[in-house]
Amino acid sequence: MTTTRKNMLPPGLVNNLQEVLLSRKGGNSDNEKNDEQRKKSEAIGDSTETSTSASDENDNSKPVVLVTNGEGMDSLGLVYLVQALVCSGLYNVHVCAPQLDKSVSGHSVTVRETITVAQSEIEGATAYEVSGTTVDCVSLALSGALFSSSKPLLVISGINRGSSCGHHMFYSSVVAGAREALICGVPSLSISLNWKREESQESDFKDAVAVCLPLITAAIRDIEKGVFPKSCFLNIEIPTSPSSNKGFKLTKQSTWRSAPNWLAVSANRHPASAAHFMSNQQSLGLQLAQLSRDASAAGAARRITTQRQNVEVESVGAVKSDNKVKKYFRLEFINKEQEDADEDLDFKALDNGFVAVTPISLCPQIESDIRTSASDWISGVLKEEQ
Fold first, then answer.
1. pLDDT tens, 44-55?
2. Quick one: which of 271, 269, 362, 280 has its CA closest to 317?
């Protein structure tokens, strides 16, 4: 069952969630043949040029849906989601995503530096890959400088490989993509799959799409009716086995996060000149370091096919003097044992097998007792200064 306690959603959307739950199909994709991974062609044309063929396919009577993510254009979560939206025939699908993996980059933007944009071949969609961050992608796509058509009705960021619950939302680029859309005044969703090593498989992304697609449809319908919430975006967390989920549950953002653990690394393993990878165990997903800013789309596609690994954030700054001693560290995130918690918290509902749907506001309300405590402290300090 869904819960409506302490949530920011209007009754209309709650009813839609209940309808989605009742009408949801099991998502039996285990018997389907595995699709061959989409091969990308070389990026072509000027970065500001719009594909003629894609423009011809656009039907002005259809709403525009913009898809982005944090893991790059080749991420299976994005590929399967875009395929499903295109195959529905209901939307004009625009895609603007990072060229390479930009996971765990938070709400970072690229300033004092030029980003590059190249067309990407995705059948049925107008797509661009960007050398910048997820927030760069959303900001550029909504600026009117890249896409010639009107602003999208909905922005979807995902599907991310790895949970973005709790305080991980502050690190998550997939959540940041949805947040940036809301800042720009466009309704948005961020979607993540609770990927677990040695348990999850690539076909789970197809099941995750099947699970969240009815909710996307309901959101678009309510946006057109003017009843979708305007003060928040929705963060959707899909459990590890999407096809056997227990249904949708309205949840609250928790304060949970994995424990950071910095490990000293032997200097002889990481010479300063070596190219290196960034990654994150909670993964917040596979991190591919940008080996060169002008790397081709084909090169990115080849790298994304390599086996996904745990994240390593390494300190390997250039040596300025032979007299200086350098130290090397790697950041790992360790899953903490979770104590008993409120069943309505995002990570708890996700662990219990629910699809956790959490409203995230740009201006979270501060609890009255916290506000009072802070006010008393500030008043006391000001009196002391006087």
1. 334 334 333 444
2. 271
CA–CA gap between residue 382 and residue 373 (Å, rounded): 14
- What is the four-CA torsion angle of 157, 159, 165, 171, rounded to 10 degrees? -60
Could you give the C-alpha distances from 322 to 264, 318, 326, in angstroms and in order?
20, 11, 10
pLDDT confidence of residue 76: 95
CA distance 174 to 176: 5
pLDDT lower than 70: segments of the chain: 1-58, 256-258, 267-322, 335-341, 364-368, 386
Task: Spell 35-57 as b/e; 16+ CB within 10 A means b.
Answer: eeebebeebeeebeebbeebeee
Structure tokens that stand for 89 in this block: 């025939």
Percentage, residues of the chain above pLDDT 90: 41
Amino acid at 241: S
pLDDT tens digits, one per residue of 351-360? 899 999 999 8
User: For 373-384, what is each residue's pLDDT tens digit?
Assistant: 778 887 887 777
Q: What is the pTM of this model?
A: 0.69
Q: Write down the pLDDT at residue 15.
A: 55
Quick one: three-class SS letters along the chain?
A: CCCCCCCCCCHHHHHHHHHHHHHCCCCCCCCCCCCCCCCCCCCCCCCCCCCHHHHHHCCCCCCEEEEECCCCCCCHHHHHHHHHHHHHCCCEEEEEEECCCCCCCCCCCCCCCCCCEEEECCCCEEEEEECCCHHHHHHHHHHCCCCCCCCCCEEEEEEEECCCCCCHHHHCHHHHHHHHHHHCCCCEEEEEECCCCCCCCCCHHHHHHHHHHHHHHHHHHHHHHCCCCCCEEEEEEECCCHHHCCCEEECECCCCCCEEEEEEECHHHCCCCCCCCCCECCCCECCCCCCCCCCCHHHHHHHHCCCCCCCCEECCCCCCCCCCCCCEEEEEEECCCCCCCCCCEHHHHHHCCCEEEEEEECCCCCCHHHHHHHHHHHHHHHHHHC
Length of the chain: 386
d(CA 181, CA 184): 5
Tokens 């396919």 locate to: 57
First to last CA, the chain: 57
Q: Which residues pair with 325 in a beta bridge?
A: none
